[in-house]
Structures are given as structure tokens and as C-alpha cells.
Write a structure and sequence with these properties.
mainly beta; about 110 residues; Jelly Rolls; three-stranded antiparallel sheet; 9 strands
Length: about 110
Amino acid sequence: MKITRLEECAKTAVTMAGANGASRQLPIGMVDGAPNFSIRVFTLEPGGHTPHHSHESEHLNYVLEGEGVALEGETPRAIKAGDFILIKPHELHQYRNTGPRPLAFMCMVPSAYE
């Protein structure tokens, strides 16, 4: 069993093309012995965003704090703390922080996406 807190997890900049003002933390992953799924936390600074991209597998997201938009293809949908979001396989998406504070969300994915 592993019990950790987000503030104990290293934060690294997201360097993927198309990302801006984004960082990532990995509270639970393969290094912890999780064989199938990982939990990542992304934080977007005000004005920051993830790349506009898609994946082969679904991603399960939960907004921890802040507000912004999630692009579903090209359509912006408002999001805020407390929202659950399902990104389906091959669905084009992007997260954008449109608020004055950081936007943070959990992203649960197959471990291969670490």
C-alpha cells in the first residue's frame, strides 16, 4: 500500500509540443507497483493549456481546483472544481485555464501513458 500527498510529489514541467504553463505530478504509478493504472495530476497556470491532442485509450479526469474549459474537439465546455470528465479513445481534446487561479485536475490512465 502507498499513501501519499500531492505536495510530496515532484512537479515537472510539461514539455509536450503545444503545452503552455502546464506541470505534472505522479502520485501513483508503475514505480509504486501499480501494474495497470496511474494517477497523474496536471496543473495549468492562469492562461496555460495542454496540447490539443488525442489518445488511444480513455482518460478519466477529476477537476481538483480552479476553472477553465475542456475542448471537446473544437467545442469549449466549461469546467470547474468537482467536475468528472471522460475523454474517450481518439477524442480530440484540450484543457485551458481561463480563471485567475491555477487549474488542477487528476488524470487516471493506463500505466503505459506515464
